[in-house]
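Schema walk-through. Below, the input block comes first and the output block second. Nothing else is stored per chain. Lengths vary across the set, and this one has 113 residues.
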Amino acid sequence: MVKIYGIKNCDSVKKVLSFFKKHDIAYEFFDFKTENLPCSKIDAWLKKTDIKTLFNTRSTTYRTLKLKELNLDADAQAEWLCKENLLIKRPIVESGDTLLVGFNEENYIRSFT
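--- output ---
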C-alpha cells in the first residue's frame, strides 16, 4: 500500500494525490496537520535519504520559527523534524522500499506505472 504524507492544501501534495487518482492507485493519506508523525518514522526515512532532502528550509514554519538564525546542523534539523512535522518537505510517498520526496511526475511514472 502506498502511503502519502503531507498536508491537503499543499500544491505538491495535490499534484501527487491527483496522480494516484488518475492512475487508479490506492493510497493512504497521513496529514501532518492532524496527526503526529513518530520520530522513528523520520529516523527510518533518514536511512533512505539525507536530511537536506527532508528538511524544508522554504516553509513558512521554518521562517516563522527563525530557524535559519540558529544555523542548525543535521542532528538538530532531525530533532526539529520530530518536534515540528510541518518542516518536512512534502509530499513524502512511501511504498515498500521506495521513498519519494517532493513531486516529479517522471519519478512517479517510473515508480508506479
